[in-house]
Structure formats: structure tokens, C-alpha cells
Design goal:
The complex is a heterodimer of chains A (741) and B (113). With 741 residues, chain A is mainly beta. In chain A, 3% of the residues lie in helices and 57% in strands. Chain A has four helices and 46 strands. Chain A has a 22-stranded antiparallel beta barrel. A six-stranded mixed β-sheet of chain A has the order 10-11-17-18-15-16. The longest helix of chain A is centred in the N-terminal third of the chain and has 10 residues. The two termini of chain A are 19 Å apart. Chain B has 113 residues and is an alpha+beta fold. The termini of chain B are far apart. Chain B has a single domain, classed as Alpha-Beta Plaits (2-Layer Sandwich). In chain B, a hairpin with a 4-residue loop joins strand 2 and strand 3. Chain B has four helices and three strands. Classes of the chains: A mainly beta (741), B alpha+beta (113).
């Protein structure tokens, strides 16, 4: 434990004053013997310059003095960087501190951070960043994240969707602990099924993902790590209430049964019983709902074997629509109602064989089985769907020769059974997809990392699919990192589940043809520049990504009478440019400013069946995010505020269409831009926290979010065109209580 | 809308004000801390107690240096906090009840590591 204090930096000042070169040695300290051991291959460079060298077999280095910089940086994987201010000395002895324990503890406990080592452009949202916005589940966990934005799906069902790189959340592969989880029919409400207090951290990767997790990542991947059974907190209770009457209780328990066995229980219950119609359109602004959700899991941690298994169960019931709608009126025109009931059960297990003598080696098996059953109605239309999934992934990891050459190889199998019925449209399919993958990583001193992966999947319905992916990372200096990625993504769309919110309308659903799988190519590049000026530290990130679709599911809503689903015939692309600056001007004070630009277009067939390239609807071209957070030591008080500005969005034509003569070009309108302002204050006591916060504090509301709200059974009813907040200002308060082991 | 934003900004500035106001005193107290976990526990609990601005424990001599606001707390109260966490504070022995709740590696009987 004392090694952090004992380690550090020793400067040996020699008598040679005007030496033109700096020479020295880089060492680590043996924890037991306290003796110094040379480090071979450590990077030594002048901060902010390209002058770099590496240590030799005896840990020695020699580097010419630099005119531009007096700060010498020493870095090596697994150790903390050391920056030394060089004066007249010419001989240095550097002792690096191991950061193996530090990395896990500090990085995960800190704020949103960028994973510096990863070749993928990855942001980590930590528990601390999640606590910035107390509410409530995964869909709301991205409030302070610039890359992922939350889009409003409709004004009735209360489902929320996320967007990344200009495309819907369905193009992101969303995993829970590396198990593909929010997919298929669960994509409608799936983000609401992961309570915020269960989440330990979220990794947000932009661009093509690793082939190890499958072929479905098209614009990025999100992996959610849940609270572990062997966590420090043996009890964590969170309660929450807001001014609309939503109440929530989360209780997490963790228990260590023995040295090796531990068990954890994560539970959640929440409800909204108040009927709220603030905009006076006769419709509930938020659906009434109740959710019960629990996971029980067991973990075995041995020297050679790590095993986890558990079960998840979820029940959710929603009721929305007109203010005086009651469940008994379902199927009548007394009042327009919406209802959804979801039952979901899941079993998962993860077994890993470890090789204590060969830490680079590992063998892991992931197994998962899930049953998703949903029953919904929108006015007179019913929509039922079930999905049964089996998933298995066997991963072997090792090296070729030395640890500069890593590889992962394995086989996977996924079985999906879908059965959906909407009105009289029946969609039924069985997907059986065995696959194999290989991913090679070349790592040159962490300066240059290349990950080249490929997978082949034998889809029973759509044939053999090849998925190549490539990631490159190059550290120009310790402060500047360049990344690039390219890769193919493939997925089978579930039109009704993905455009669920649009079913709350008088639009008729039309499938113009059999829907083929979606295929896209994603290319991207990014620069990360870290800087430190005196006490001030921060980073600046620029990235550009492009997604080109070979085939895309087109949900054509240009004609207000229909939702037409068909395959893409022309082109569809999404360009995303983002600039983000994070600054810590003084200790515990964090600022984030980000600007994001989307250029997203999609070919839509017009009345003559010609393809017209149109901006994708419901996508803001511009978005600005500003976040400021300040905390007192030990987070005694924490203050946090976020402002978002969402630019204009294209909406399809919403007017009247004469039956006898459909105009050539219906045209479209633009939804106005708007601000969203959130803030929160937290007070921490040794065992508990209390928090008070507000969302949408500027009380901005979309005017008339429901078209034709007065005649929900008429021809012009459409609740699926919500582009902004439907409810106004929301104030919430809550309490967290923790017992630490 | 404006008033809400204004009030939040005011609260934020108030917070900064609390943080930056000076006029603090410092006290050094010898504890029975053993390891990093002890250090973290003592620093956090003291840091969150009334009137304490900063606490820093040096494991090599087990002395915790506490910066506090003399108008809100006293060295006696700080010592009382430490013994209630389960550690000795200068001449005062740790509260037995709190001490027994500590993980085995943090108890006085634990071997130094």
C-alpha cells in the first residue's frame, strides 16, 4: 500500500552544467524488496514536441535538450506518467509508480473521462458523472454527454430514444456487461429498463465497434457495467420523487458469502399515478406507469476461474392517451387510449478461465437466454410482440510471441425468434446465426496500436455476412492522440418496434416490400489533445464520422396518411462532426463545452417512385452542450448545471392531403430550435446524500405536440411528431443511503 | 424562467463563496490509522463533518492534519469524530463499538502492511 508514497521521483543532480543531452534511467520499485528494477521501452519525450526516445534494455535513455520545452515526460503502460521540469541537471533517475490499482479506482470514480489507452474512441461515464443527473434510467444517463443525445419519440408513450452520429439508437450496439441486450423488440423501451442506480459505468464508443461483440454495431457501441456483487457498498438505497408525482425506490444489496463467493441483488420499483395534462390538449403528457425490475446474481472469483450467473425479471405497465381514458375503455372510441405491458425474463452466465502465470491469456464463455413479451394498443389498434433469444459467445485471448501481438478469437451463436402482430400484419421470423471472429492487436509501446478484426456469420435468412473492422491509434506525443476507424455493420431491423411512437397516429402502416437487413460502413477519425497550463488542465477533442448505408430501412412519413416501410434504393449517409473542450480551471471545477454538427440524408421515394435525397427527419443539424460542475472536497456539496441548445429539425409535411390529387412535393416544415436547462445540487454526509434538482428549468414545451388531438379517431391524428419536451419544468428530490463494507 | 436560472446561479456562487472563504485554523492529531483504507476513511469522514475544510493523513507518522473553521468546530469535536470512526485520536482511545466494525485489516491488531 505504501508504494505510492514511497515511489516517485528522485533527481540526481550532476555537476555537469551545460550538457546538451539529458541522460538517465527509468525504474520501477519492487514492492517486496524495495529494490529498483530498470524499465525497458519506456517513452521519454519533451512535452508538446515530437522529440521522443525510449529506454534501452538497461532502462537507460539519452535525449537532446529541447528549445521548446523544459518538461520531460516519462511514460510506460501500467505506470503513471511522470513529468519532470528540467533545469540544469543532465542525469536523471526516474522511478515510475505503478497505476494498476489506481487506474481502476481513480478513473472509474472520476468524472466522464476519455479512455486514453483504448484504440477505440471511448468515453467513460462514471458513477460520479451519472450522479450529476439523479434520474432515473439509462435513457437519461447521457444528459452531460456530448456524443449521445436523447430524442423524444412521441407525445404519448413516454419512450425515449437516443441518437449518436446522427442516427437512431438502434444503430448503436447496446450491451449490458458485454451481452447484447437492448436490441430487437427491447429497443422500444429497453433504455428505460436499466435503472440509473444499477449502473456502475457506461462506456460510449464511437464508430465501428469490436468484432468480438458481434456485427450489429453500426454507429457505435455502448456497454453498461452494473454494480458488482463484490462491490464496496453492501447496501445502497435510493429514493426519488418529482413534482409530477413520480416515485422511485432502488435498493442494491451486495453480500460476500466467503472469500470467493459473493451475491448481489439489484431492485427497482417506480410508478407515476398522477394524470398530468399541462398543455391542455386533453392528452396525458406522461403515461401512467409502474415498473418492477430486479436482478439477482452470483459471482465466484477464484485464482483460476471466475464465474458469474444470474437472473433478471422485469414487469412494466404503461397507460396513456386521453386524460379520462380508463383501461376498460380499450377497444372503444369513448376515449383514445394507449397501453403497453412488458414482461421480460433473462438468464445470463459468464465463465472465465484465468491463467495466473500468463495474465495475457484467457478463455471466456458468455451465455444468455431472454424472453421478451409485450402487449400494446394504440386506440383501436393492437400490437403484440414476443422475442426469444439465445446467445453464446466463446472468446479465447492470447499473444503471438510477445505482448506486442495480442489476439482474440472465438465463435458465437445467436438464435432469435420473433413473432409480432400489428392489426392484421403478422411478422414472424427465426434467425439462427453461427459465427466466428478473429481480432488481432498490434501494440507498439502504446504509441501505435492497431486492431484489425474480422468476423464471418452464417445467417440462415440472409446468407453469409463478412464484417471487417479496423482501428488505429497513434500517440503523437503524450498529449496528442490520433485515432481512425473503419468497419462494416449489419443488422436486421424491427420496423414496428423501432417506430413504435409513430404508431400512435392515424397513419396506416404499409410494407412496400420485404425488408432486407441494414448494411452500413462507418469511417471516422479523431484527434485528442490534452493540455496543462499551470493549475489548469483539460482536453480538446475533434472528431468526424461518416456512416454510408448500403441498405437502410426507410420509414417514409412524408405523406401524413402513411408510414411506408421499404428498402433504400438511392443513397443514405450520416456525417457527424464534433468539437468538445473539457477544462478544469481550478480543482474540482469542471467545464465542458461541445458543438456537434450533423448532416444526415436519406433517399425517399416520391409519388413517381423517384428517389429524392432529403435530410433525415427529427435530426437537429446543430447542437451545443455546456456543462459546469463544482464540488467541495469529498463532494460535501456538489453543484451541477447543463445547458443544451438543439437546433432546427426537419419535420415531414403535416397538412391535409386531398385524396384525388396528391401533390408532387408535399414539402416539409422545420421544428424550431430550443434550449434545455438542467441543474442539480447534492449534499453528502458520511453515510448518505441528498439531492435536489430540476430538468427543463426554462419550462420549454412544444406547442401542440399532438396533431389533431381533438379528434384522435379522425384522419389527422398524429402523436409521433414530438420534437421537444412535452412536459414542462420538472423538479425532483431524493436521497441515497449507503453502507460501505 | 429567468428567476429559476438566476436562483440556481446564486446558489452556485454561494457554494463557491463557502468554499473560498478563509479564516481557517489547523490542527494535527495522531491517529491509529494503518493502511490506505484507513486513510481514505478518516479523510472522507472528517472532510464531510461540520466545519472541516480539508483533512490530510500522513500514513508514515499516522498524523492527520485538519483545516477547520474555528467558528463552526473545535479540535475536541474533531477528535470526537475520529474516535467515532474507530481510531485513536491523540490521548483519546477509539470508540470500541466503531473500532470493531472496521474491516480486519484496519483494526489495531492488524499487522502493518
Amino acid at each position: 500500500m505504501n508504494k505510492y508514497l514511497l515511489g516517485g521521483l528522485f533527481l540526481l543532480i550532476s555537476s555537469c552544467i551545460y550538457a546538451q543531452r539529458i541522460t538517465g534511467s527509468v525504474n520501477e520499485q519492487e514492492p517486496q524488496t524495495k529494490s529498483l528494477k530498470p524499465i525497458t521501452g519506456a517513452n521519454v519525450y519533451w512535452a508538446g514536441t515530437a522529440n521522443a526516445t525510449a529506454t534501452d534494455g538497461n532502462g537507460r535513455f539519452s535525449i537532446p535538450r529541447s528549445a521548446q520545452s523544459a518538461l520531460l515526460v516519462v511514460s510506460f503502460v501500467g505506470f503513471q506518467n511522470d513529468t519532470i521540469k528540467i533545469g540544469q541537471e543532465s542525469e536523471l533517475q526516474v522511478v515510475l509508480q505503478s497505476d494498476q490499482t489506481l487506474e481502476e479506482v481513480t478513473v472509474r470514480a472520476g468524472n466522464t473521462s476519455i479512455d486514453r489507452l483504448s484504440p477505440h474512441q471511448t468515453e467513460i461515464i462514471t458513477t460520479r458523472a451519472l450522479a450529476k443527473a439523479a434520474c432515473c434510467n439509462l435513457s437519461e444517463s447521457f444528459e452531460t454527454n456530448a456524443s449521445v443525445s436523447v430524442s423524444y419519440s412521441d407525445a404519448v408513450t413516454g419512450s425515449k430514444q437516443i441518437q449518436m452520429l446522427g442516427l437512431n439508437g438502434t444503430y448503436i450496439q447496446t450491451n449490458v456487461e458485454n451481452i447484447p441486450s437492448i436490441r430487437g423488440l427491447a429497443s422500444t423501451f429497453g433504455l428505460n429498463f436499466v435503472p440509473g442506480t444499477w449502473i456502475q459505468s457506461i462506456d460510449v464508443g464511437k464508430g465501428a465497434g469490436s468484432v468480438v461483440n458481434g456485427y450489429e454495431s453500426m454507429t457505435g457501441q455502448i456497454n453498461v457495467e452494473l454494480q458488482k456483487p463484490d462491490t464496496q457498498e453492501k447496501l445502497y438505497l435510493n429514493t426519488y420523487v418529482n413534482n409530477f408525482g413520480r416515485g422511485e425506490v432502488n435498493l442494491n444489496l451486495a453480500h460476500k458469502l466467503s472469500d470467493k463467493w459473493s451475491t448481489g441483488l439489484l431492485t427497482h420499483g417506480s410508478t407515476l399515478r398522477n394524470r398530468i395534462d399541462k398543455n391542455g390538449d386533453g392528452f396525458l403528457d406522461l403515461p401512467l406507469y409502474t415498473q418492477y425490475n430486479a436482478i439477482n446474481r452470483w459471482k465466484y472469483q477464484g485464482d483460476k476461474l471466475m464465474a458469474q450467473f444470474g437472473i433478471k425479471a422485469l414487469y412494466e405497465d404503461r397507460l396513456g392517451g386521453q386524460k379520462d381514458f380508463e383501461r376498460e375503455m380499450k377497444g372503444t372510441t369513448q376515449a383514445y387510449g394507449f397501453g403497453a405491458r412488458v414482461n421480460r425474463y433473462e438468464f445470463f452466465s459468464k465463465i472465465a478461465r484465468l491463467f495466473p502465470d500468463q495474465p495475457y491469456k484467457g478463455l471466456g464463455l458468455i451465455l444468455n437466454a431472454s424472453l421478451h413479451d409485450s402487449k400494446s394498443y394504440f386506440g383501436l389498434n393492437n400490437y403484440d410482440g414476443t422475442q426469444k433469444t439465445l446467445y453464446g459467445n466463446l472468446i479465447y485471448q492470447s499473444i503471438i510471441g510477445n505482448t506486442n501481438h495480442n489476439y482474440k478469437a472465438g465463435v458465437s451463436y445467436i438464435l432469435d425468434h420473433y413473432d409480432e402482430l400489428y392489426k392484421d400484419i403478422r411478422l414472424k421470423r427465426n434467425e439462427s446465426v453461427p459465427g466466428a471472429f478473429f481480432e488481432y492487436t498490434y501494440n507498439h509501446l502504446d504509441k501505435f496500436v492497431m486492431v484489425a478484426g474480422g468476423r464471418v456469420d452464417f445467417h440462415n435468412l440472409y446468407g453469409t455476412q463478412w464484417t471487417p473492422r479496423l482501428h488505429l491509434k497513434y500517440s503523437l506525443t503524450g498529449q496528442t492522440t490520433l485515432r481512425a476507424s473503419a468497419g462494416r455493420g449489419f443488422r436486421v431491423a424491427n420496423p414496428l418496434a423501432e417506430y413504435y411512437g409513430n404508431l400512435v397516429s392515424s397513419r396506416s402502416v404499409m410494407f412496400r416490400e420485404a425488408i432486407r437487413p441494414e448494411v452500413s460502413w462507418n469511417y471516422g477519425a479523431s484527434v485528442t489533445q490534452e493540455f496543462k497550463i499551470g493549475e489548469m488542465s483539460g482536453n480538446f477533442i475533434l472528431d468526424f464520422y461518416r456512416t454510408d448505408s448500403e441498405n437502410q430501412l426507410v420509414a417514409d412519413m412524408e405523406d401524413p396518411r402513411y408510414i411506408r416501410f421499404y428498402n433504400l434504393e438511392g443513397t443514405a449517409y450520416a456525417n457527424s462532426f464534433q468539437a468538445e473542450a473539457n477544462l478544469t480551471p481550478i480543482k474540482r471545477f469542471d467545464l465542458k463545452l461541445a458543438y456537434r454538427l450533423f448532416d444526415v440524408k436519406q433517399s425517399i421515394r416520391n409519388v413517381y417512385d423517384d428517389n429524392v435525397l432529403l435530410p433525415r427527419m427529427m435530426v437537429s443539424r446543430d447542437r451545443v452542450l455546456f456543462n459546469a460542475g463544482y464540488a467541495l472536497p469529498y463532494d460535501k456539496w456538489k453543484f451541477d448545471a447543463t445547458v443544451q441548445w438543439n437546433g432546427k429539425k426537419r419535420l415531414p409535411y403535416m397538412g391535409h392531403v386531398p385524396d384525388h390529387h396528391v401533390p408532387d412535393n408535399l414539402g416539409s416544415t422545420m421544428a424550431p430550435s430550443f434550449y434545455n436547462f438542467n441543474a442539480q445540487i447534492t449534499r453528502t454526509f458520511p453515510k448518505w446524500d441528498i439531492y435536489l434538482g430540476g430538468e427543463n428549468l426554462a419550462n420549454f414545451r412544444q406547442k401542440d405536440p399532438i396533431m389533431g388531438a381533438s379528434e384522435p379517431f379522425g384522419q389527422h391524428f398524429d402523436a409521433g411528431m414530438a420534437w421537444g419536451p412535452v412536459v414542462g419544468r420538472m423538479i425532483y428530490a431524493g436521497m441515497r443511503y449507503k453502507i460501505i463494507r | 424562467m429567468k428567476t429559476t436560472i438566476l436562483s440556481f446561479v446564486t446558489v452556485l456562487l454561494l457554494g463557491l463563496n463557502i468554499a473560498l472563504a478563509d479564516g481557517s485554523k489547523e490542527v494535527k492529531i495522531k491517529t491509529s490509522a494503518i493502511c490506505e483504507m484507513c486513510k481514505a476513511r478518516i479523510e472522507r469522514n472528517l472532510g464531510l463533518s461540520k466545519g472541516v475544510k480539508e483533512s490530510n493523513l500522513d500514513l508514515s507518522n499516522k498524523v492527520v492534519t485538519v483545516k477547520y473553521n474555528p467558528e463552526k468546530t473545535t479540535p475536541e469535536a474533531i477528535k470526537a469524530t475520529i474516535i467515532n470512526i474507530g481510531y485513536d485520536a491523540d490521548e483519546l482511545p477509539a470508540s470500541q463499538k466503531a473500532h470493531d466494525k472496521l474491516p480486519s485489516c484496519c483494526r489495531k491488531t492488524a499487522a502493518a502492511h
